[in-house]
Amino acid sequence: MSGFFSALAHGASALFNRLERRSAVKTLNELDDRALRDIGITRSQIEDAVYGQFKTELSRYL
After folding, report:
1. Cβ(25)–Cβ(41) under 8 Å?
2. Is the pTM of this model over 0.70?
3. Whole-angstrom Cα distance, residue 35 to residue 61?
4. What is the spatial distance between Cα 6 and Cα 49, in angstroms, rounded to a whole number?
5. For residues 61 and 41, what is the distance between their CA atoms, to the nearest angstrom?
6. Cα–Cα distance between 34 and 17 in angstroms, integer?
7. 3-class DSSP assignment, residue 61
8. Cβ neighbours of residue 30 closer than 8 Å, sequence gap 6 or more
9. How many CB atoms lie within 10 A of CB 28?
10. Distance (Å, rounded) from C-alpha 30 to C-alpha 34?
11. Which ranges of the chain would DSSP assign to H, the alpha helix?
C-alpha cells in the first residue's frame, strides 16, 4: 500500500511541476521583446530556459 501512495505522491509532484512550468512559459510569452532581452533570452529561447535545456552561452544570463 505504501508503494501506491509513493507513486501517487510522485505523480502529483510531476503534475505540479508541469503546471508550474507551463505557467512560467505563458508568463514569459506575455512579456515584450525588450523585457525578454533584459533578462537575457529571446522569444525562441523561452521554453528551453524554462525546461532547463538552454545552451551554455545562455546559462551565464540565468
Report:
1. no
2. yes
3. 13
4. 30
5. 8
6. 28
7. coil
8. none
9. 18
10. 12
11. 2-30, 33-39, 46-50, 56-59
